[in-house]
Design brief:
The protein has 16 helices and 3 strands. By secondary structure, it is mostly helical. Strand 2 and strand 3 (164-166) form a beta hairpin. Strands 1-3-2 form a 3-stranded antiparallel β-sheet, with no helix packed on it. It starts with 13 loop residues before the first helix and ends with a helix.
Length: 394
Amino acid sequence: MATQEPDRFDRVDWDEISRSRWFDPSINGIGVLATALPLLLVALYDWLVLDERTPTLDPVGLGWDVGTVDYLFLFTLSLFAFYIVLPLFQNPRRTRYYWREFRRNRPAVVSLGWLGVVFVGGVIGPFFVSAPEQSILTGYQPPVFLSIDESYVSTCVGEVVAGRCQGTWQHPLGTTAGGKDVFAGIVHGMTISMQIGFITTTIVASIGITFGTVSAYAGGWVDEVMMRFVDVVLSFPTLLMFLLVLYIYGAGLGMFILVFSAFAWGGTARYVRSKSLSIAEAEFIKANRISGASTYRVVRRHVAPNAASSIITQLTLLVPGFLLAEAQLAFLGLGDSAVPSWGQLISAGRSDLSFAPWIVLAPGIVLFLTILAFNFLGDALLDALNPEAEAENA
């Protein structure tokens, strides 16, 4: 009587097991491709067919003029959806474990809620809140429940009580000297912040992970040359490069993202290299090599997934630096005044602090809370996704 031969280690279809337990890379890749192709077609239609003055989505009645940064933002959102959000839904058991560990950090849970508000406001807010427009007659309108001396206001939108202009819900957070609504500026600033966070982090991750992994597995003189190049990138004054680009091409959000992405990946490359070298010495990696697995397969199937948790945490902690850099440059007058970022809003009210502090305080508090939330989130993700790091710090 014939008996079924038990599966041996070298005969097990590990690809099938990996897909069943985590996610199928082909499905995620197809999803990203299905999103990228329509974006590419719309971009080609925008650049080759439509006139420069015609908004991209004007033919369908939306009147939204999609720019290059918007296309990149939508593409990075698809990457986030298919490679981070979707795998969490595909593996609910692991997701429950991560959430159970994450919610132990109460400030991080509150931070996640705040970042959710910023994300939703940045993605769909501009469709419901009009962009802030210049209106000199409505300058220095105070926020709700506050008032300002009538002499500072050309035309008071609210009531005038005892010579003071009262705030109204028409401008809940007041207006700037030019009459731009502060609340609308904050909402549209959420979009700018999300674009900076998603696009810059995606570019930094792509370059840093690739560079660090190749350097770790190439070894020898290749590793030495690549790491010395990383030293050059880390030593290069990013502000000086940004000023040079600003002088040649002019200010713009796209230029900011390009320059800071080009010089911010060095730390990620070093981190990925060290993490890859430590994982490469693990016993299961040696077992895969002995079984005949190629270097590409070992990196793609084992090194990258095992280093992903630490890399995600490290990238999360980079976002506050990008947001703060944009705000600092805008405050110094080195940004694009046409970009409704929080930094531009803060810069617009720096000379009016004595009598109109809300112009600086409102976006400043939102920026502070967002940066603080990212820091709390990064610490909590480190504990949830990489418990070994928590054990080492204990």
